[in-house]
Amino acid sequence: MAATAAHADTDLPAIPGASGERPIADSFTGFYEIQGAPSNSERDGLDVFEADRSHPSITVTSSVTKGRLKVVDQRGRLLCSGSSAADNAHLYSCDLAAIPSGPQVVTAAVLKSNGHFSEPDQALLDAYAAAPVVTSTEREGDDLVLHGNANRGIRVEGSLDRKEVVASGAADDDGRFEVRVPGGASAKQVALRAVNDDIPADTPDHDHFAVSSWTDVTPATGGGEQPGEGGEQPGGGGEQPGEGQSPVEAVTNLHDGDTVHTAEPVFEGTARPNGRVRLDTGSLSGLAIGIATADEHGKWSTKASFLRPGDNWISVSYERPDGTWRWAENLLIHYVPTVDHFTVQTPASGSTVTEARPEVTGAGAHAYSAVSLRTADNDRPMGGARTDASGEFVFDVSEDLKPGVNELTASYQDLNGNWKTEPYTLIYDDGKGGEQPGDGNGGEQPGDGNEGGQPGDGGTEEPGDGASDTAFSADALRVSDRQVDVGVHGPKGTEVTVSANGETKKVTLGDTDYGNTLITAPKKLTTTVTVTATIAGEQVERTLTIGNGDHAADALEAEVSSTSALLGSAKITVWGLPWGIGGLQAREGDRTLATGAIKDDGEGTISVSGLAKGDHVITLVSGGKQTQVSVHI
Q1: Which strands make up the sheet holding 359-363, listed edge to edge?
Q2: Checking phi first, is residue 338 left (phi over 0); if not, alpha (psi -120 to 50) or beta?
Q3: Residue 352: phi, psi to the nearest 5?
Q4: Cβ-count burial of 3 within 10 angstroms (0-12 exposed, 13-18 middle, 19+ buried)?
Q5: What is the domain class of 343-436+447-460 according to CATH?
């Protein structure tokens, strides 16, 4: 394999099980999140992720499906292996084995069963010294023995006052440690921290890599028999809940991988009595979506403020007695709306109503999106509301319906701020329609009153009068820096083609008149997605524009970010479709100056050096496209 631009002196490590001579053609792999958070910076041409746990979770996207994710360190040591999500074959995840603290490069690829593999991706992981996690405590004579997990090979220190270190123990290659505190059997609390003496002193942010924060441990009671306690009867000395031992800190009603049908699910669990619990989107640095305080028995409950449709990584953290926070677990919660496309449920379109201002209910829009009812002829408002957390809505028509047929439109606002509109018809029977003066109760003629309209009176749209145009719609929801999920609504069984950036996907609309597929549309590029189908013999097409108009996805663009006359170098920012590690090249004439990569979001940087004083024309090449920039040194 070729070396990366950022580490030209280091080849990509071998991926265990990979037997193909080269990656699968036109494939990609991209780091999405580590420890529930995306990259927020770049260093040496690679995305930088941060972690402060010894076994952080990792999420990767890949064009290769039905494979197995492999993540390795720079020596090719397997850190973790995982499968794809049940509802997204392109999203893979796993929890890393114990990693050492310090800056490090990790490499990911997806392997097929035949040994073929996706184009690998690399990232820089700033693994800060993780606070030790204690899994058990026991008393052995006068000593207190603590077992737990920490960074691989790190030293775990114990203290009774957070000042004097009274015991220590080294974590093994799996991150497991044992610390024996002499005379600690009677201690009510012990503090632990992790220390890595091997971090070079000139490492940026040295202290965060070298020393973790202290974490307090309250030893379990009743674990070791104390002198003079031999006369207790069985069960007589067992501690009851609430007598000093905190309940296990955990979410009890939802589990990793569970599916919910509301954007505001309730989380319940146990924690330290009177201690606080926090739910975040990904990590403690993410958005807090729920905070609760446990009662005196350690029970707590809180409603999450807002989940997005699809996968949601929820980080659960607990407050320590000293006011600091301890992360405990990540939960992957799938939010699947009860109705997967926008619809007015009652009254159904084409219904006859006897109230001039009926109540309208529906579902299927995104949580908290605006819904509007308007007249079809002059766009006059007739009512509206915002959906609740489950995408459901209810409101009363704000103006009287006219007797007879009312042609309306029902609309909602999608996540991109665009309005999606569907035709909606109500027939208002005011009780006067068929009666003639003096007719009494028996004057109705055939065809009047309640017998229903004749064909062509506007009650139901017939095939051929615009149904193929109005019944077919598409929208998009971003699922990663690289891809969007294109959702299509239309008649059941319709074959739909979705195309963008040279990629074509086929999807068949199912029983719910809905289908979806992932398509490449990098976040920092502007992509045109074309959705086509044949409905009732008519070719229909919808076009979605993804992006703000900057940097067209069908071109390669570049600009010089900075130059150095002293070093004879230049840094160039490039926008275009991602083509994996080494897929971006900088050339001057026939000479290749540097190689690099455009990231999943469609933006990359490449640095060239060794330029003599004067003017240079640098050609950037990626994915069969090229562009030029002028550099003056």
Answers
A1: 343-346, 359-363, 393-396
A2: alpha
A3: -100, 130
A4: middle
A5: mainly beta
User: Which whole number is the average pLDDT over 500-522?
Assistant: 84
Name which of 577, 576, 594 is nearest 586 in CA terms: 594
3-state secondary structure of 208: helix
Pull the structure tokens for residue 87. 């509802």
| Cα distance from N-terminal residue to C-terminal residue, the chain | 33
Q: Which residue is associated with the tokens 């609740």?
A: 388
**Distance of CA 340 to CAs 346, 390, 414, 616, Å?**
17, 11, 13, 55
Mean pLDDT, the chain, whole residue set: 80
Q: Which two tokens stand for residue 613?
A: 């004083």
Query: Homologous superfamily of 250-335 in CATH?
Result: Immunoglobulins (2.60.40.10)
Q: What is the pLDDT of residues 2-12, one digit of tens each?
A: 333 333 334 68
Strands 419-428 and 495-500: unpaired
pLDDT (tens digit per residue) in 176-203: 999 999 988 888 888 899 999 999 999 9
Q: Is residue 231 predicted with pLDDT exceeding 60?
A: no
**Residue 485: alpha-carbon gap to chain centroid:** 13
Tell me which range, 291-305, 483-497, 549-563, is most confidently predicted by mean pLDDT.
549-563
Nearest 5°: phi and psi at 103?
A: -70, 140
Measured in whole angstroms, how far is the alpha carbon of residue 410 from the centre of its chain? 30
Match domain 133-217 to its CATH number in 1.10.3720.10, 1.10.540.10, 3.40.50.2300, 2.60.40.10.
2.60.40.10
Bin 543: left if φ > 0, else alpha if -120 < ψ < 50, else beta: beta
